[in-house]
Amino acid sequence: MATAVLGMQWGDEGKGKITHLLARDAAIVVRFNGGPNAGHTVIDRGVKFGTHQVPAGAFYPGTVSVLASGMVIDIRVLREEYDAISAHLGSRPEIIIAENAHLILPYHRLLEELEGSGKAIGTTRRGIGPAYRDRAARVGIRAGDLLAPDRLQARLEQRIDLLKRAWPGVPGVSALDPEKMATELIDVAAPFLPSIGDAAGAIRAALSRGEEVLFEGAQGTLLDVDFGTYPYVTSSSTTFAGLPGAIGVPNPRIERRIGVAKAYTTRVGAGPFPAEIGGELGEKLQKMGGEFGVTTGRPRRCGWLDLVGLRHAVALNDPTELAITKLDVLSGLDEIKVCRAYRIDGEETIRFPLSVEDLSRCTPVYTTLTGWGEELRSVRSPDGLPRAARDYLEFISDELGVPIGIVSVGPEPDATISLL
Ligand code: GDP
Ligand code: IMO
Ligand code: MG
User: Fold this and answer.
1) N or C: which end of the chain has fewer CB within 10 A?
2) What are the Cα distances from residue 113, in Å, to 73, 75, 105, 120, 124?
3) Percent of the chain predicted with pLDDT > 70
4) Residue range 261-418, CATH number
């Protein structure tokens, strides 16, 4: 059976924990979008990892990890995380890298700085936007190019020549040397060269054999390049709607689609956030939830659960169930608010606007629910949850029309309650 795990908010919903948990039974785990902008926290046998590009399947010997063509891959970052995971396991996980996945190269990060997009949008500054842009502009370098050193160098020469013409006299650009870059890339990529190949074929074969295939989404629905809060988004498709194209399998028939949502909302980087909580309470939530970015260490903005955004995410992901994470963080609040609609120009709406100009004019319409005082970290069954926590979950599920299959009450794998 195939399963997909997708973020329903602005990222950092706890996808890493959920995929790591489900990957135990998987034959193959596939990351299909984004690159090292992702930071997925995995606690494997007591050791905490922040993974960026390697899917959570890599923690189980015998499971194949696939980096699909929808990703942009930074080989240097990959080498670091792969080596760290290998040292932890005492063996080297099997991986497949799509030959047609694009590479993030040093000049992509440089471009992000030179153009200032990192600052304006509050990106992770990992070169994501420039790498996807090179893909669309047909001047990108792909993983398969690493297998043909002459071709790699010729492509780098062409690309760097364009950069030097666009940025004459800029020191970081003038210093770019295609020959040196090609040599360094092949050197860093050496352990992965035998792994570069037909990822789409491997996924298709596993699906048609009926194996357990797990898809690990990165970022979240509201960061989707088309359906998110553009331009305050990432540069790839982050939804189930975009998954088939990102893996090269037209109808992957994924029976279990898990939409992961935090019990409240967070966002890193700039952009409108109607249910944001300012002041002391916002800071308290940030502290209680440990809301600091895995990739950049930036504090995450915190807000109440936003059903308007989540309804939009339900439409784009068609989840068969929800995983609600970090419910434990809400313990100790007398009241919990949920944004059930927006008010814009005096009118109430439950439609999530695609224009950030409209979104920034929206104010939240809240419903207030009763909180609970009990600690939830050691709860392991639905019956162990306080009545108010169960009511909160039921309210979310009813409003969204999607059952809740998993509730997470702590970062560790066993701090999980199964509901279905
Ligand atoms: P991802 O990007 O979606 O994988 O999420 P991140 O790893 O960036 O952020 C989630 C953070 O919350 C990490 O620090 C996790 O260890 C932590 N976490 C995940 N689930 C829970 C939970 O149920 N309760 C608490 N308290 N922390 C959690
Ligand atoms: P995971 O997979 C949270 C955000 C950045 C910025 C915007 C664009 O850990 O949930 P980019 O570097 O992609 O060009 O930045 O997207 N962003 C994330 N926010 N979690 C992520 O990944 C993110 N990946 C990108 O903060 O607002
Ligand atoms: Mg994250």
Assistant:
1) C
2) 19, 20, 14, 11, 11
3) 100
4) 3.90.170.10
